[in-house]
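ok so dumb question maybe but i'm new to this and my supervisor (M.) told me to 'just get the structure for Release factor glutamine methyltransferase' and walked off. so i did the thing. is this what she meant?? sequence i used:
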Amino acid sequence: MQLSELRTHLREQLAGGESPALDADVLLCHVLNKPRSFLLAWPEFDVSARQQAELAALISRRRAGEPVAHLTGQREFWTLMLEVTPDTLIPRPDTEILVEAALARLPGRPARVVDLGTGTGAIALSIKSERPADTVLAVEFSPQAAALARRNAARLELEVEVREGSWLAPLAGLTFDMIVSNPPYIDAADPHLAEGDVRFEPLSALVADDAGLADILHIAGSAPAHLVAGGWLLVEHGWQQGEAVHSVFTDNGFEQVTTLRDYGGQDRVTLGQWPGREHA
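this is what came out, is it supposed to look like this??
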């Protein structure tokens, strides 16, 4: 079967999904081991019977709801291609808002940064890729996820130390210019947990007590002991949690507290600066 015909067939098979055209192309590129430009440049390319069979199996799994990132084992984030497994959250484009905000507030000198609950390592590795002189650490509670983050760091040749433990516990005696985190923030009763890709992701990386705010409360309360004067805390949160997280930050003594919106115009990241003058 020629590529153009197969491409149309796959899109029809995935019709009704969130992004049938994109999903079909990503799976085609994965099986053919070609860039997306190849799909446009070589419509007459003959796809082998073996490749068609492999695609049919992947399409069946996708129609059952399995995330494309799990089918291919990878997801692009920022400028990096990351290995992804069911042990972690799949990096989302909206999390790039947090990376952008972090890069805009880091000092001109080499800085110390830590990413809490790093998962694939997406946030920490993105910052390190843009600021190679910075010392970037990452913390992850899940041993499987920590191992994945280390693999991504090694493959990308980015020097990020990954420590295992709960939030700031593995960082005794250390201070940072910035703490960033995309923690669990979904209420356990949220009906969206039964929909889409999250059905295939670890609940421990999604759900938090206290209407989804428990981990954010803990991080905001613990962060000041690990921030230099003038240091920043940035966290991602749910689209309905902006006002609540803003209050959590101010209640814990942070200044210049701001909530940023994602690409869909929803509240997504709140940040605040620890009082005091940043050292030069």
